Structures are given as C-alpha cells and as structure tokens.
Amino acid sequence: MLFWLILFFPLLGAFLNGLVLRKASPTVSHVLGAAALVAAFIYALITYLQFMGAGGQAQVITGIDWIDAGTFKAPFNFILDRLSGMMLLIITGIGSLIHIYAGGYMHEEKATYRFFSYLNLFVFMMLLLVLGDNLLVMFIGWEGVGLCSYLLIGYWYEDDKNAAAGMKAFLVNRIGDIGFLLGIFLTFKYFHTISFSQLKDMILTAGANLNGEQLQAIGWITLALFVGACGKSAQMPLYVWLPDAMAGPTPVSALIHAATMVTAGIYMMTRLNFLFYLAPDTQMVVASVGAITALFAATIALVQYDIKKVLAYSTVSQLGYMVLGCGVGAYSAGVFHLFTHACFKALLFLGAGSVIVAMHHKQDMREMGGLRKFMPVTHFVMLIGVLAIIGFPGLSGFFSKDEILWRAWTGGDSYHIQWGLGALAAVCTSFYMVRLLMLTFYGKNRSDHHTQEHLHETSVVMWGPLVVLAILSAGVGYLNVPHILPFPAHLLFENYLEPVISIPPLVADHWHHLHAEYPHSLEWAIMGVSVIGMAVSSIFAISMYSDGFGKLAQSLGSVFKSGHRVLSNKYYVDEFYDAYFVTPLRDIAQFLWKIVDVVIIDGIVNGVGQACMLIGGLSSFRMSGSLHRHGMVMIVGIVCMLSVLFF
Fold it and tell me: What is the pLDDT of residues 22-79, one digit of tens each?
C-alpha cells in the first residue's frame, strides 16, 4: 500500500491543481504541489527503509494485466530493487526541495496551478520510468517526461522563443525515441520478452547458450536503445535541445535538466547493463560518445555569458561523464555521478535562479558582479556547488568524477583516448565554473543603478532548499570513497549496487581481468592529474576574472578572437542542422502540402465531384418533374432489361 501511495500523491497533485483548483490562489497551488511531493518522499523513504531492512533483494510488484496478445505480454508490473529504490529517493527528495523553492521563484505569477500541475505530473511520469519492470512501461514514463518537459519549457508560451524551445525539445527527443522503439521491437523478436527480470534471468542463466544470431542482435538492440539515451540524456548529436530548454522557469531547469529526466538514459543503460556487457562494440560507441560530448559541451561553456546557458552546457558535459562511465563498464561509478550531480547541479541551478530573481530576471553575467555582498547565503551555497562540480578534494564531485576517469584509464588501452578527453573536460569544467563564480559574486557590481538599489538576499523559501542541497553536495561523496584514501568504509555505493550490476558469465573473465587490482601509485597518479588540472585551471580563471573583464581576459579574447567566435556560436551546430536538415525537410513538407496535397489529391477529389455535378447538370434537362412520365420511363426500362435477359 505504501508503494502505491508514492505514485498516487504526485498524480493526485497534478489532478487537483490542473483540473479542480484552477481558480485557487498561487499559494494554494504551491502548497498543494509541494505537499504532494513531500508526502511521496516520506512514503518513498519508509518503503525504501522497509525494503533494505528485508535484505534489499529485488522484487517485482504485480500490477494489472495490461497487454496480452498471443505470445506478447506486457503486464503493468513494477520492480523495486536497489537501483530503483535509490532513484525513488532522488526524484521525490530533490523534487520536494525544488517544489518548495518554486513557490518563491514563481510568486509573481498570477495563476501557477498549471505550473505545479505539470511539475507533479512530471514526477509521476519519472517514477513510472524508473519503476517499470518492462520496456513498455518504461516507455510510457519515457514519453510522459518528454511531454511534461515540452509543457514546462514552453510554460511562458506567449513568448515565441519559449514556445520554439519547447517544440525543439519535443521533436529532438522524438528522434531518439525512434531508436528506443526499435530496441523494444528487436528485444521481443529475439528474446520473446521485454521484462527486465525475465531478460536478466535469461542472459545470466543461459548466457553461454545464446546463439550467434541472438548475440549479434544484442549489439543492434543496445545500439538502438543508446540512440534513445542520446536523445533523453542530451548526448551528441541530439544534445541541441537542452541548452535551449533554459528558456523555461529555473525550477524546471533544476528538476528536469539536472536531477531527473536527463538521467533517464543513464538509468536505462544501467538497468540493462547485462545486455550492454555482451555488446563490446556498443560499449566502445557509448564511451566515445560520452567522452566527446563531455569535452565538446565543456568548451562551449567556456565563453557563454548567460548564467543558465553555462549551467546547461555543464549539464550536457556532466552527462557525458556518466555515459563514459557506462561505456567503460563502470555502471556503479556512472550512477554515483548521477547521484552527486543531482545534488550539486540542482543546487547550482536553484542558486542561479536566486541570482536571477535578485537581478530582476537578468541572466547576463556581464551585468552582475559583487553579489556576495548582497546575497551572502546564495554566494556561500553556490561556492560549495562550484567546488563540488569541479572536483575539489573532499567534496562529492571529487569522488564521483575521479572514479569514472579511473575506470576509463583501467578499462583497457582502447579507452585511454576517452580518458584523455574526459580529463580535458574536467580542466574546462574548473575554468568555466570558477569563471561563473567570479563574474557573478566577485569584483565590482556592473548592473544599473536601479538594480543595485533593490539587490537583496532571497526569502527563506528559496535559500532554505539551497542549504539542504549544499549539505548533500558536500557530504554524499563519502558514500564511495576509494581504497587509497584513509576512511573507515570504502566503496559503499559500489557495494550497494553490486546486486544490480550483473556481468554475464560469457564475458565475466574479460571484465574481471580489466578491473583487477592496480598499484596504488597508479591510482594516486591518475587522481593527481585531475587535482592538478583542476587547481591550475581554477587559478587561471581567478586571475582572469577577479576584476570582472580585466585586461587579461580582454587580451586573451582578442588573441583568440576567431576561436572565441566559434565557441560563442556553439560550433555552428544549430546552423548546420537548420541548413541541412530543418530547411530541406520544411521545403519537402511545403511541396507535399502545396503540390501533392492541394493540387494533386485535392484536385482529384474535387475533380470527381465536379464531374458528377457536370453529368448531373447535363441530364437534368430531361427531368420534367412529371410523376407519370417518370413512371412510364421506369416501366419501359424494366421491360427492356427483362427482354434482354429473356432473349
């Protein structure tokens, strides 16, 4: 019963806010939306504690018999194990903090019932995604969060920019969803089931007996599913929707584009890790795409001035790290970075939202500066968030990001290039995040006189959740401390997820050999490279932007003018897509509409109708309206027909 209440409360909140209490005050909408999430979190925590107290063994919770057609069966069942249990706490816990914060951020809106209804519905769909025991139930949640993302990004739909951003997110995700659907179809074709539990049992118990056709199919299945992950988790080449999604309200950015929806691809690959282990070519593709995306997005973030755009490209980059972890077979490291990233990126987005509110909704960092004097709490928590994401020793990002880089280096010689790309991305991360901190909170304030007069710290409704997230960002890293560091317990998170990460017997020896014991000196060296790179790039950023856009920043900008232009325009990827995909498709659609549809199809249909009218007009002059004459013609016609038949 407790489990069902976790799903019930967000759905109830969405229903009441969206359909019943549409005329309620914004305060009522906020309280109802936040209360629904807090209640879901409480029941999720109780359920999780009961689950772990019973041993933490995976269990399938039976729902309704949904689809039963021949050999295809897709019951509405749910799976509760250590992975989905952890995701429950992240979604409802961080979701609760964001809902509370959203009340302060959206206080100027007159009717927020729609906003909180969408937020609650999104959480419900995300819970479906992570709890579903088969690919089809997961796909419902997968599409549901895509729909809610479209609605929330375009919340201020009167603005054409916001409406276009929502449509872009919706359409780009549909491209990835085609791959996801193909993966579902291929899975059923070759394994006659789409249930996670049944697939896992089949692969682990009869893995050595899989025929060549099935092994080859696994490669195509995992590749198709990864296309879906690229769309939802904003990987190249389908990452372009996420930066534009910053047009929506900041709480939306924090919930959807930092903590939950964009991690769906990483969750899906981890859930099906036993399939991906059997597809080494796909693993290489996954690792390469993740590493390239991490560096590609990080370089774009180096020169952005919109505070939310910097965090958006940072999100794309950090998702690349998670995908890299999955690609090198370190699923626990990838999920651990998902966990830590949910904390510090939600903190950074919400902190940026506080700055935006204080700056009267200005987002350009060139108009900020010196805000630590006016917003001491926001400055302090943002400082913790920045230190966490750049991998400062002792904070959460240090443990999760370095674990991924370590696994990439020890994943074999073929992954050393990916490690190099990830290490460079880490250096870029330190630079652009310290740059954000310096331009926003240090130096002289560059805003206009009117804005300076009204600068102040936000209300406790907004900075309260930031403090909680700051504590989590500082502390959750100690759940997975490596063996080389002096600490009472090591790799707790990795051991916690061990029952979920299942290497098939067919490839077990290969993967265990890759992750054998290595000299501590090598691990210290890899960690040292990351820390030194972080320190050097951070110091460089401080020296460049300690006085805002000082002489050093201006001189470097003039020296690397062409490179700065390319990065400012995001490598012209959007322009490339527009020229070679969007415009041709629009031209084709125009041709199909104006020529094929209007001229040919409508011409044929209308021509037939006009021909009938013409024939009717030509014969109508014979119709006099005389009943006895019509009757005589009918009788003569019948006699003629009978005569033909008779003779």
Answer: 888 888 999 999 999 999 999 999 999 999 998 889 898 888 888 888 888 888 899 9
CA distance 645 to 3: 78
Note whether 400 and 352 are within 8 A (CB): no
Question: 3-class DSSP state for residue 445?
Answer: coil
Residue type (1 letter), 14: A
* Structure tokens, 576: 């490339």
Record the pTM: 0.90
Q: Which of 389, 396, 277 is nearest to 331 (CA)?
A: 277
**Distance between CA 460 and CA 469 in Å, rounded?**
14
The full DSSP string for 6-74 is: HHHHHHHHHHIIIII-TTS-HHHHHHHHHHHHHHHHHHHHHHHHHHHHTT---EEEEEEEEEEETTEEE
Check pLDDT > 90 for residue 215.
Answer: no
| Sequence-distant (≥ 6) Cβ neighbours of residue 407 within 8 angstroms | 325, 328, 329, 330, 333, 515
Report domain extents, the chain: 354-561, 575-646
- Give the residues across from 67 on adjacent strands: 74
Q: What number of other Cβ atoms are within 10 A of residue 208's Cβ?
A: 8
DSSP for 472-529 reads HHHHGGGGG--TTS--SS--HHHHHHTTT----GGGHHHHHHHTS---HHHHHHHHHH
With the CA atoms of 40, 17, 109 and 262 taken in that order, what torsion angle do they form, in degrees rounded to the nearest 10? 50
Rounded Cα distance between 228 and 98, Å, is 27
User: 424 and 536 in contact (C-beta within 8 Å)?
Assistant: no
Quote the CA–CA distance of 410 and 421 in Å, as a whole number.
15
321 to 191, 407, 544: CA distances (angstroms) = 31, 11, 27
pLDDT digits (tens, 9 = 90+) for 517-547: 778 888 899 999 999 999 999 999 998 887 7
| Paired tokens of 268 | 């899906």
Closest CA to 60 of 85, 81, 33: 81
Q: For the chain, first and last CA: distance in Å?
A: 84
Amino acid at 364: D
CB 323 within 8 A of CB 337: no
Q: Could you tell me which of 244, 473, 254 has the C-alpha nearest to residue 354?
A: 254
